[in-house]
Write a structure and sequence with these properties.
Layout: H1 2-26, H2 41-48, H3 56-86
Helix pairs in contact: 1-3
Length: about 90
């Protein structure tokens, strides 16, 4: 049963990894590059020029990073306990 939970968590973890890669690529670099440069200015302003000090896309990145770290720790913990049970 624990093995199925680990497999499910790995699927969630890999999905979070792809989302994290995509959201980082969306962010524009200091020279104005990034995937976000292909969108028109109104979409860019909505995501990058959020009214607060931290833009919306950076907030989303921080949330996804926290999810990534949480799933990494859970998978590591479950994998070590599963391997200890098998020995």
């Amino acid at each position: 049963m624990k093995n199925m939970v680990v497999i499910f968590l790995k699927f969630i973890h890999y999905s979070i990894c792809f989302c994290l890669i995509f959201i980082i690529l969306l962010q524009s670099s200091k020279d104005g590059g990034g995937i976000m440069g292909i969108f028109n200015s109104s979409i860019r302003e909505k995501f990058l020029d959020y009214p607060s000090n931290i833009s919306l896309i950076k907030k989303i990145t921080a949330i996804i990073i926290c999810m990534f770290l949480f799933t990494s720790l859970i998978i590591t913990r479950l994998s070590t306990t599963l391997n200890a049970c098998l020995l």
